[in-house]
Design brief:
about 450 residues; alpha/beta; eight-stranded mixed beta sheet; five-stranded parallel beta sheet; 13 helices; 18 strands
Length: about 450
């Protein structure tokens, strides 16, 4: 029976208790110990005798940067939808994170600006802030504490197929090439995933890939933090396309008594590694809260990151697909990270996997039911990010059918969210991935936004 994307999205974001385990398979293998990978492993642990996570990096104790996550040095945000799902699968995760150094971000201690104008409060949900390595290491530690989950260092080189299903994973080990039999495989190897190559090599179709050039640039630095309970504890200063290709700036308190500060831009306006330039931009181009943060001692150097494009692999469009195989996270859709939706999208995709498996999935057939659920999550994040990106002067497109209408709706809602608390709450619920974007196009919401903007002379 058909259910609207908004209803499916709400169901996937539910926070009820995890259902009782139901054994469906022997060994499941997850490719990649990313956030998406460890969350998939946590779900599979409810349905497999054993779960093996294979990752090319040596992942010992600690929270250092690793080569497999090139964007890991940049500022990350765990949106409320992602936090809710993680707390569901790992009870007490948020409390543990804060106890080990992550910073609680109460709604009252956060501020948001748009084009220099301070926004009215919208979200009333507390968040937690920490570096990407900190969050990833804690997730990995909680996952590997499960008795049937094991981590294996190794570089995956391919897949084995027999009949209509995947049957094994090829990878390099300390003793040479190995084939590990698998009853279910999850690809979580990120935006550089080679799953399409492996499918072709096995006689299957390669998933079509969509690319949208965005040419995004990040510069991030950390500063010493001496305040124990600073207010504000986090500030987001966004810039619309009216300001050209400057995406905005943000700062937040994180673990280790530090501030993390990020600048973002598109096209040729590239924040570089020069520390004085980052400090100057923060002081001159953004709200006054930035100046005292960057007046502190900078810890380390400015780290930069460039993402040339957003990518989406449409596995759901394949006519032929092997059974017992799915992909998650950036291996499916790697959208503009400036909106902070990556980790939360991965968490909701884990919810898709959980619903698929506990629904009595027939593992002899391709995971079409999973792909249908996953598409709802991916469509939501992809639509939000690409609609905003296409408004930028330097983003070439192409613009999809109906873009002008969706852009107009987005502009009305965004503008009204600056001054109207009701619109701000609805807008933030979508940005935080707690509600589906379609909710913003509801007549009552859109009509209210138009009236607010008319009253403001916009």
């Amino acid at each position: 029976m058909y259910q609207s994307p908004a209803r499916v999205f709400a169901r996937l974001g539910a926070t009820g208790p995890v259902p009782a385990p139901s054994l469906m398979m022997g060994r499941a293998v997850v490719l990649g110990a990313s956030v998406a990978g460890v969350l998939a492993a946590r779900v599979l642990a409810e349905h497999a005798e054993s779960v093996l996570v294979v990752d090319r990096d040596e992942l010992g104790a600690g929270t250092g940067h690793r080569a497999g996550v090139p964007q890991g040095t940049q500022m990350h945000v765990l949106l409320p939808a992602g936090r809710d799902q993680i707390d569901r699968w790992f009870p007490g995760f948020s409390r543990q994170a804060v106890a080990e150094g992550a910073v609680l971000l109460p709604a009252a201690a956060r501020r948001s600006y748009l084009d220099g104008r301070r926004k009215v409060p919208g979200s009333d949900v507390d968040m937690i802030a920490a570096s990407r390595p900190f969050l990833e290491e804690l997730l990995r530690r909680r996952t590997l504490a499960l008795p049937n989950v094991t981590l294996l260092p190794g570089r995956v080189t391919g897949l084995d197929f027999a009949g209509t299903a995947v049957t094994g994973v090829r990878h390099e080990s300390a003793t040479g090439p190995v084939v590990t039999p698998a009853d279910f495989v999850v690809d979580a190897t990120g935006r550089s995933s080679r799953l399409g190559d492996w499918l072709e090599q096995g006689g299957w179709e390669r998933p079509p890939m969509r690319r949208m050039a965005i040419n995004l640039h990040y510069a991030t630095a950390t500063f010493r933090r001496t305040e124990e309970h600073p207010v504000p504890v986090a500030v987001l200063a966004g810039c619309t396309a009216a300001g050209g290709d400057i995406a905005g700036a943000a700062f937040s308190a994180i673990e280790g008594d530090r501030w993390i500060v990020m600048l973002g831009s598109y096209g040729d306006d590239r924040p570089g590694r020069d520390a004085d330039d980052l400090v100057r931009r923060c002081r001159e181009n953004f709200p006054p809260e930035f100046a005292p943060v960057v007046a502190n001692e900078m810890l380390g150097t400015v780290r930069t990151y460039r993402q040339a494009d957003s990518r989406r692999r449409d596995f759901d469009r394949l006519r032929r697909l092997p059974a017992r195989l799915v992909a998650v996270g950036d291996a499916v859709s790697s959208f503009n990270p400036i909106y902070g939706q990556g980790m939360s999208s991965a968490a909701l995709q884990a919810s898709c996997l959980a619903e698929y498996l506990r629904s009595g999935a027939d593992l002899r057939r391709p995971a079409r039911e999973f792909l249908a659920l996953q598409r709802v999550v991916v469509d939501a994040a992809w639509g939000m990010s690409t609609t905003a990106d296409l408004a930028r002067p330097s983003v070439p497109g192409p613009r999809p059918p109906g873009y002008r209408i969706s852009r107009w709706v987005a502009d009305q809602i965004t503008a009204a969210s600056v001054t109207d608390p009701v619109t701000a709450r609805r807008f933030d619920a979508v940005v935080e991935m707690r509600r589906h974007p379609n909710s913003l196009a509801a007549p009552r919401t859109l009509l209210r936004a138009v009236r607010v903007n008319q009253a403001q002379g916009r």
